[in-house]
Amino acid sequence: MLHTWSLSVEEQFYIFFPSLMVLLWALGTKKLTLVILLAGLASFSYANWGSINSPNATFFLIFSRLWELFIGVIVALILFRRDLKVSLFVKQVLSLTGVLAILISVRLFDEFTPFPSYYALLPTFGAGLIIVFARQGTLTHRILFSSPLVGVGLISYSAYLCHQPLFAFARHLSVDEPTQSVFLALIVFTFFAAWFSWRFIEAPFRDRDYFSQGVIFSSP
Predict the structure, then answer these.
(1) Could you give the CA distance from residue 77 to residue 17 in angstroms, rounded to a whole number?
(2) Contact, 5 vs 60, CB < 8 A?
(3) How does pLDDT run across 151-175, given as a tens digit for each residue?
(4) Is 132 helix (H, G, I), strand (E, B) or coil?
């Protein structure tokens, strides 16, 4: 059900945001950016209030997650302009800051961390810094473009889809919390299943020789 929720939030955004863009694009990118910033600020304020006063609804509803998606929109607008002239040193510092922010989140956040509150700024803003500033020539770029990490990136979505049901069923089938050995085995199996899904489902589906637009929209 977590997958159903996360995909529904993304689908709501993908449906409504393009309509908003169509309506506001004539204003120009500056005014459009201002509207997005104001809407994101309202969503962020609600998320901070709701993470304390109504944590379950705040975690699952799109209104409190909208600001996280809008960070991605701001990143896209920045990259769309393509006139971000900063030195390699600045790119190095800001891209590494993004990596550090994500690592801090992984290390310090737990089930007691109010989310999505201002704590969520660390991983989301960190990801934004990486996307914008991890340009060619930076250490972050070299690390993220290494073959092992590119390989993990290719299968990451499939791994996301696979891991949650595996871990959930393991917990349901165990009297006590599964051991670390069980979770390690499930992680290994997750990567195998993710590769299989990417190789035989995702990659062929993206190949227009197999699935053209006509084939997709004419299918029953």
Answers:
(1) 14
(2) yes
(3) 999 999 889 888 888 998 898 888 8
(4) helix
- What burial class does residue 116 get, using C-beta atoms within 10 Å of its C-beta: 0-12 exposed, 13-18 middle, 19+ buried? buried
Query: 140-175 as b/e, with b when 16 or more CB fall inside 10 Å?
Result: bbeeeeeeeeeeeebbeebbeebbeebbeebeeeee
Give 122's contacts (C-beta < 8 A, 6+ positions apart): 101, 102, 104, 105
Sketch the domain layout of the chain as residue ranges: 1-83, 84-144, 146-220
Alpha-carbon distance of 198 to 160, in angstroms, equals: 12
Residue 35 has pLDDT above 70, yes or no: yes
**Of 72, 149, 64, 166, the residue nearest 115 (C-alpha):** 64
Q: How many CB atoms lie within 10 A of CB 219?
A: 7
Any idea which of 18-32, 47-61, 104-118, 206-220 has the lowest mean pLDDT?
206-220
Total-model pTM: 0.83
Q: Within 13 Å of residue 131, how many CA atoms lie on the same side as its CB?
A: 16
Residue 49 amino acid letter: W
Tokens of 38: 């104001």
Residue found by looking up tokens 């349901």 in the block: 172
Closest CA to 48 of 70, 65, 69, 72: 65
On whether the CB atoms of residues 133 and 99 are closer than 8 A, the answer is no
User: What's the first-to-final CA gap in the chain, in angstroms?
Assistant: 26
